[in-house]
Amino acid sequence: MQMEDKDDFYRFIHSAGKLDERGCSVNLDKRRIYMDTQNNIVYSMNAQYAGNSVGLKKHSMRLAIHQSGRQGWLCEHMFVMATVNEKKNRRTYFCGAYPSACGKTSTAMIPGELVVGDDIAYFRNIDGEYRAVNVEQGIFGIIKDVNEKDDPVIFGNLMKSHELIFSNVLVGPDNEPYWLNMGIEAPKSGSNHSGPDWHEGKTDADGKEIPLAHPNSRYTMRLDYLENFDREGFEDKRGVKVEGLLYGGRDSDTTVPVEEAKSYEQGIVLKAATLESETTSATLGKEGVRRIDPMANLDFV
């Protein structure tokens, strides 16, 4: 890779703060995030949740949203994927935005299609064309409900002994990871987010039963592990030409399942800007509450 000799990078300084015997941040009431948008530096402390502490992920995205709005490009909470027409040897690229835990990765991984990225996209107008790049080398996805039937490519890779990161899953006596709805019978005891002594039926301070793994458990893997990885699109320095945008969320009883806008303008103003979705385990607060989430980007602006 060739890079210009310039001091124009996003920088991050993070401290988990004081830790308990399990290595978890203690002073959660003192967690802070300070974003210096003039110098593109983020300071974060007393927290460990990756969405608020992994600088190269969401902190980077927030800086990019701020910077792009002043420089004439876009940073969006979107996947980049290609639909494939093998008879005509053609790839048509789409991008899509759904709030966290609402299906971005699953949509980008539709069987028979190709994935460029599943979470963050940078867009530029190049010679009158709307072009997108994925700036990440991997996937940081919610692992709940990932199973062999619904997510065969991802599940298959999670079962292999290559470089992977799991967070907030159950570690069983066999030292293997287990998560909610994985389609494999899990041990009745082990170590998870509640401590090293989790067992089936264990309850929290409010008497609520603690599940074997946290609903917001995550996995991280390299994109090039995936057999449907679009390396050509990923490595295109001009980005891929985007032919359509998809917006969606959790809304089971109001909006029709699929609806096409008559134009980009109508789609952005009447669909994306007024997007309504139910909250999930990926956000703080109660789940299942309907809220307006314009462009599926409210948490990151």
What layout of secondary structure does this protein have?
Elements: E1 11-15, E2 32-36, E3 41-45, H1 55-71, E4 74-76, E5 79-85, E6 90-97, H2 104-108, E7 114-117, E8 121-126, E9 129-133, E10 138-142, H3 152-158, E11 165-167, E12 170-171, E13 177-178, E14 189-192, E15 195-199, E16 218-222, H4 231-235, E17 240-247, H5 264-272, E18 276-278, E19 290-292
Structure explained in plain terms:
The chain is α+β, with helices and mostly antiparallel strands. The protein has five helices and 19 strands. It is globular, with a radius of gyration of 20 Å. The two termini are 30 Å apart.
Summarize the structure.
With 301 residues, the chain is an alpha+beta fold.
List key phrases describing it:
301 residues, alpha+beta, Phosphoenolpyruvate Carboxykinase, domain 3, seven-stranded mixed β-sheet, three-stranded mixed β-sheet
Radius of gyration: 20 Å
Number of H- or I-type helical stretches: 5
Structural class assignment: alpha+beta
The CATH topology of one domain, please?
Phosphoenolpyruvate Carboxykinase, domain 3
The CATH architecture of one domain: Alpha-Beta Complex
Instruction: Give the terminus-to-terminus CA distance.
Output: 30 Å
Strand and helix order: EEEHEEEHEEEEHEEEEEEHEHEE
What proportion of the residues form beta strands (DSSP E)? Answer: 25-35%
C-alpha geometry = globular
The beta-strand count equals 19
Mean pLDDT, rounded to whole units?
Answer: 91
Share of residues in helices? 10-25%
Strand line-up across the major sheet: 4-8-9-17-6-5-7
* Unreliable residue runs: none
Query: In CATH's first tier, which class of one domain applies?
Result: Alpha Beta
The biggest sheet, with number of strands, parallel, antiparallel or mixed sense and barrel status, is:
7 strands, mixed
